[in-house]
Amino acid sequence: MNRKGCILRFKFHLPLIFISHLTSHISPKRGFTVVEFLVSILISLLILGAISVAFIGANRGFQQNKPISQAIQEAQNSVVTLDFLFSRWGVGVPSSNNIPIYIMIYNGTLRTDRNGNPINWQPANLPNGITFPPLNPFWYLAADANGDGKNDTIYFFASLGGTGYVIDCPNNAPPCNILSCRLTSNSTNRCYFIFSADGTSIKYYVLGSTDLAKDNIDCLNLQNNQTSNTTINVGGLNPGDRFQRVPHLIRIYETPIDNKTSWLTFDRIDLASHCNDNENATYIGRIRRGSFLITPITKNLITQISQNFLGNFPILIGQNAVEVQADFVDENGNVAYRFRKVYAK
User: Fold this and answer.
1) CB count, 10 Å around CB of 75?
2) CA Rg, the chain, in Å?
């Protein structure tokens, strides 16, 4: 082999010689030493400990804040309920003027007694001292039920059901076109007042199962230029007449749980005995005991201290505006949300 061939062969084998030299010093069976192994375990334990401490701290903070967070959420739901009840305050409530409320049957005629006189509609039994219709649709009664000098109970009338407006009656006879906002013949919500368009009459009517072409439909998604969404097969109606679910008597008050907390509660008494949609002790939310307070905001208040459905405790009769306060609490009695709002008409 000449000199040039030897040089080329050496250059070709040089990288292989270098690599084999390096790998000859590395043992394929070499592992961690005892010291290295202990150090790695220590580092792992420190990392796991730090993670555990962080997790425990975060979980403890979450558990501490969870009751308050839940109480705030429940308080917000409670406020929605209060807002709904007071938004219906006075709706569908006639005043005690000279317009009688007569009972109408399906053909539009009035029910009469043996002498042919129209029969007046009568409300269901109410607590002693409360009459219907009131002097003003937005009447309310604030009472000191606990005898501690604070108004902790409120009564008012409110329609919680549907409404509807007669648009027209082709050929001056039924069926009439009507705009229905949840009118229904359901057994517990079929009782309605019909307020005449000219304001001269109020009739009480119980919807039959076949009176409405469409039952319990809403009026939120009317098409352009649409004025009615169903028909009603009832006589004696005129354009502009308004159907309104007969009101309930609403009572909002405290129901004690223990010496620190109470349930904010409401009852409803249906004024229509044909529907009898009564409900007792519906819980609104958990509050600090004694924090529910009714403050009248109006003039010409009437204060009575007499034997009534509350005993000899004073009652206050007002109208149009009232302030409501309550401290909503968590399950441990800690105040989570202080509520204070004026409801006015």
Assistant:
1) 25
2) 38
Is 262 inside any structural domain? yes
Mean pLDDT of 158-180: 95
Question: Going by DSSP bridges, is the β-strand pair 202-206/101-103 parallel, antiparallel, or unpaired?
Answer: parallel
Q: What global pTM score does this model have?
A: 0.78
How far is C-alpha 319 from the chain's CA centre?
24
| Closest C-alpha among 185, 140, 165 to residue 317 | 140
| Residue-wise pLDDT tens digits, 94-142 | 987 779 999 999 999 999 999 999 999 999 999 988 999 998 999 999 9
High-pLDDT (> 90) share of the chain, %? 63
d(CA 9, CA 18): 15
Contacts of 155 (CB under 8 A, 6+ apart): 127, 130, 140, 141, 143, 249, 250, 251
**Same domain, yes or no, for 229 and 342?**
no
Q: How far apart, in Å, are the Cα atoms of 198 and each of 19, 20, 100, 242?
A: 109, 111, 15, 11
**pLDDT per residue as tens digits for the range 10-20:** 455 545 454 45
- How far apart CA 222 and CA 286 sit, in angstroms, is 40
Residue 290, sorted as left (phi over 0), alpha (psi -120 to 50) or beta, turns out to be: left
Give 210's contacts (C-beta < 8 A, 6+ positions apart). 233
| Whether 153 contacts 252, CB under 8 Å | yes
Per-residue pLDDT, 1: 54
- Of 202, 152, 339, 186, give the one whose Cα is nearest residue 276: 186
Is 307 a member of any domain?
A: yes
Choosing from 181, 211, 246, the residue where a domain stops is 246
Residue 114 lies in a domain: yes
Nearest CA to 161 out of 273, 101, 248, 95 is that of 248
